Amino acid sequence: MGTKPISTLLIIAMITASLSVNAGRSHRADSLKLSALSSKSPLEKINTLLLLSRELDGNDLQAAMKYARQAEILSDQSSSKSGKLNSLLRMADISLALNSYQSAMDYAEDARALSEDLDLVKENATALGIMAIIYAELGDYGRSMELNYRILRLFEQINDKMDVGITMGNIGADYLSQHNYKMAIDYLNKALNVAIELGDKQGMAHQYNNIAGIYMSHIKDYKRAQHYLHEALKLNLELGNRHLQGINYINLGITWFRLNMPDSAFLYYTKGQAIFTESNSPLLIADCEIYLSEYYASQNDREKGKAFAKAALSKGQQDKSFETIRHAATLLHDFYVSEKDSANAYKYSIIQHQAQDSLLFLQN
Asked: Global pTM?
């Protein structure tokens, strides 16, 4: 059955925002909730709400958005431009994690305009970074890379070494997505070295995952890819970032599938699916469903394979993710071709090509 090639889930890292937190999670979140309630000045309460929102990253994105919106409302009420800017960046970041690309772009554009009015270089670069990620997610890697090189110059200008490293990693991910593996490994290794030098465990985890992508996509050394993925997973478990753990699990599943060990792949796919279901991330759940559809195709269980592909297609259509629609429709087309059901095969072929045309339109 000629299904789509399984591709790596890359991690495109968010630029660090003005407010930072340490990983120490649930008890710290409770402490911040109490602090927000007892804060007297509006600015103190805004900053506490944003810190609380950031604490919930990777674990409860809906709650993270709730606190970011509260910070934005309070910023408007108290005429705090810095609070407004940081709230916009927070909401753009969370919307991106939720795959709500239009909302993320709107928030990022508003943040970019406000940061320029306030002449804040770091915040301007952060907003541009979110926009670059959105273009990459839509498959427009050229525009993403153009913005990332612009962002890199801004961070070099203010000597922000951590964000220089993060941006190098994102440029590496752009090159990897365009199959320019020589440039990809060069930038990803530069980013990894910066993260190691600064003791940035999250940055190290990002780059380990993406370097694994080169071994998966180009070198086809799946055992070596697993080494990097386990390094990334170890760090993400230590940091408590469930979202990134889920991505690592899915990529480990892909490596086992490529090593012709589908039952091991299934185990990791379902681990990732459980995490993304818990965090209510529809398009990442759809990715899991596409991989599970591939798994059932390999087991000649067409009914379950079709069920997972249809579930993924529904989520893609609901969120207008043409990449998800294209992948799911391709699977369904192939299932029905194998069953000699020409009517349904034609139906999903049309959906597949419409999604492909929409992707090309967005990229142009």
From this structure: 0.77
Query: How far apart are alpha carbons 277 and 246 in whole angstroms?
Result: 10
8-state DSSP, 216: I
CA atoms within 13 A on the CB side of 150: 16
In whole angstroms, give the CA distance from residue 179 to residue 271: 28
Q: Per residue in 162-182, pLDDT tens? A: 999 999 999 998 998 888 999
Instruction: Please tell me the total number of residues recorded for the chain in this structure.
Output: 364
**Residue 298: CB partners within 8 Å, gap ≥ 6?**
257, 262
Q: Is the dihedral of CA 199, 201, 202, 206 positive or negative?
A: positive
Gap between the Cα atoms of 295 and 249, Å rounded: 15
User: What is the spatial distance between Cα 298 and Cα 261, in angstroms, rounded to a whole number?
Assistant: 10
Residue 108 near residue 134, CB atoms below 8 Å: yes
- What would the pLDDT profile of 117-153 be if each residue is shown by its tens digit? 999 999 999 999 999 999 888 778 889 999 999 999 9
